[in-house]
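pipeline/complex-builder :: batch 7 item 3
reading input block
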Amino acid sequence: MSSAALSVGSLAAGYGGVLALKDVSLTAAPATITVVLGANGAGKTTLLRTVSGLVRPRAGRVLVDDTDLTGRPPEDVARAGVAHVPEGHGVIAELTVEENLRLGAMSWRRDGRNTGRAARAAAVAAACDRFPNLGRRRHKPAAVLSGGERQLLAIARALLARPRVLLLDEPSLGLAPRAVRQVMELISQLRAESGLTILLVEQNARGALAIADQGVVLSLGTVVATADAGTLAADVALRHHYLGY
Amino acid sequence: MSRHLGAAALVAILVALLSIRLTQFRDFQMAQVAVYVTAVAGLTVLTGLSGQISLGNGAFMAIGGYGTALLLLHLAWPLAAVLAASAAIAALAGALVGAATARLHGPYLAGATLLLAVALPSLTYKYPGVFGGEQGLNVTVSAPGSVPLTRWQAWITCGCALLTLVLLANLSASRIGRNWRAVRDDEVAAALAGVNVAWARILAFVVSAACAGLAGSLLAVTTGLVAPTDFTVTLSVALLTGAVIGGLGSLAGAVWGSLLVVLVPTYATDVATSHGLSSAVGSNIPVAAYGVVLIVVMLVFPNGIQGGLRRLAARVVPSPRRDEPVPAEMNNTAVRNASREASHEEIPKTPARRRARGRIGGGGRRLRLLEHERQQQLGRADGLGAGDHQQRDPDR
Amino acid sequence: MLEFLQFTLSGISFGAVYAAVALSLVLIWRGTRILNFAQGAMAMFTTYIALEVIRGTGSYWAGFAVALAAGLVFGALAEVTVIRPVEGKPPLNAVIVTIGLLVLVEGLAGIIYGGQYRSFPAAFTVTGLRAGRSPLGISWFDVFTVLAVLAAAAALAAGFRYTTAGLRLRATAFDARIARLLGVRVGRVLTLGWALAGLLGALAGLLISPSTFLYPNSMDSIFVFGFTAAVIGGLDSPAGAVAGGLILGVLLSYAGGYLGSELTPLAGLVILALVLTFRPDGLFAGVRLRRV
Ligand SMILES: Nc1ncnc2c1ncn2[C@@H]1O[C@H](COP(=O)(O)OP(=O)(O)OP(=O)(O)O)[C@@H](O)[C@H]1O
Ligand SMILES: [Mg+2]
């Protein structure tokens, strides 16, 4: 019925006695970038974790292309086409770059495309070509990569899963300004070329709003504003109050 | 201090009255339980408070037991002096072991202490002249006046167990106990807060070895014999089992755990023999049943029996009284566990911590420590039992 | 000199068995951070099964194969039934559950098979090998023991490195949360790890029982030394487990041969203490890569 690629309705979630998300709703149309903004502890990471199944929701719904994924374990959500690049990238440092990439291409869902061994290997090879910095060190442990390269590896690995929805948690955290720009460019490219729906959590509100279609502002676990990116960027009071710039 | 003493005095009177009404065999069982309580209480302090696992406390019991036998045999000291000396010898051994293993953690510590438990009794075979080899050594004590020997033994063991509990309760409520918990929760943070981590860890070993030594001594006194087969790995394993099943870090739990570890096998044996089962089957059914009990209790009460009781109490009485010496920290553990269970996540890590650590180096640790202290105070202030948090968690 | 050679060779043979047990413990430890104290007991039980099958069919190899399969099944079964509920709980809970399992399995063995010592056949002759006229102190079966363990270890290593399942296992061992985010069904992977460990344990039971006899507690000391070997090698390192097993086997063989067999456990303690003094996380502890 809806045309949303990702739709979150009245989601509540938390940890033990802490309720970190209360009644959060948002929808993201296909091939759009939605940026989630908010202060530290606002619940941005919890939102992504709840969507990807790392945190079990206490109320509400999570729909991806009208498939109900509410409360499903992370492996099922991943197999349903949601790729989550967690806070701090989540590259497995002990595995080689290539093994990290292979893991990404390991759980393809059957959607009519070729899922054979050769196709997977080809996809990994293509990723290595696309990111030469990774390709050059494909047989080295990921531990040798720099922070920016690890972030790239994490994104590349997520893309290899052929996701419909990509969740990115502060991909620019700790990167040098130039690397931040590269990552942002990559993200906007991804939407353009592969029709991916992206939910992006960022501290760098200005940069993120520049590439996003839509923005959602969280505060203390609730949505305080949802609007298209331009409107949010232009709302001086909101920017001042919640985004601090 | 006085409250612990008062409680202990009350229990002592009850025990004395009870022991008079019991049969010899029950007196003996009571002594057995008391022996285990002494050792398990020491271990629960080591493992539950200072965070060091030991699969070798049976070895300290062996030291205490053989010490007792040798002192009685060669020097004929009075019993009280023998008990104290045995505990002291074991404490010394504990200091050595604690110092040797101060850098070991988790399974490495478990492995080292396990091998200690295996290796130490083998010395008795190597020096049969001193330790009596396979046969072991006899230990004879006599009861004063007309008191039956088993009742006298029950009194001594229960008295020592109570004394141990009182001392440990005070110790764990003291600064030393606080340091242990700090070390258990985060060694680096504890060191930054000025705790001498190595000393704290060694001291915990000394204390638990002293308890085990006393227990070994009491065991020798109650069974009248020390032999290598009394101090096998099985004993060490039983001690750890008692501590965990009872509820790690809780002295009341040490009592529950000891009761279970001593009574379940005997009870199961009674049942098996009374059904007239063949000897192979009859002697093994209790073993299998004991295994099942261990598994089931652990699955049903993840925080041990004491944790389960607290939870139950919290359900019945909204705000439970706090008469446990170590509850504030149990709260933290409970919170940690609760949040772990609520999500598929493993490590709860607040973003504030991460950021502080990332940006200002060691600042994050300091922050964590402060947070830890704050949680402790909160725990103390509202007097929450471990069960409350779990109850409040709607997922559970 | 000949004596030294004999001790070395028989030490390697025992060490291979310790290595198998150590490897099984490492497999489980890496996946679930649990020490399986029931590993030896499960191996004892599968060896009893092998004995039954050998008696029934008259074929050693049938018993051998059935025992390995049983190990696989028992490992998986243990993980699914009693271990799964304690994963992610305080670590000592799992320890107590595996201890409970150990007690239960030994009790069951006692109920079903009784407590008496039984002899267990070897695959090959156990008469001693000779170099010229001097006895080497080992038999063809010892050679088989070492080769079987090394082959199993090599097969595992290759599986880890070159198969998809192996990659899933390693990813889960390093970071289960990330593995799940990538669609790895971690539950199945852990079950597979326990199953493989059960298989290795069963192999160890089959290989050691001809020299120790079979009874409900027969694997206890083997387990202790296998555990020691794993600790010496470093519980996170499969290669360390194999090396630790062989090193421990040889050193214990010297200690038993030159100092007397009652000192073997004490020698083990000394070796362990020495290793851990210099390497608190075992000989093969890698550089900690993660651990921010
Ligand atoms: N694993 C956890 N256990 C307990 N509480 C947690 C956990 N993770 C987050 N929280 C709490 O939940 C709330 C929301 O945290 P969350 O990580 O979602 O915020 P965030 O918006 O991502 O913040 P940041 O910008 O700092 O990453 C905070 O109050 C935090 O303390
Ligand atoms: Mg966050």
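note: Chain B touches chain A at residues 335, 338-339, 342-345, 348, 350-352, 354-355, 358, 389, 392-395 (CB under 8 Å).
queue -> next item
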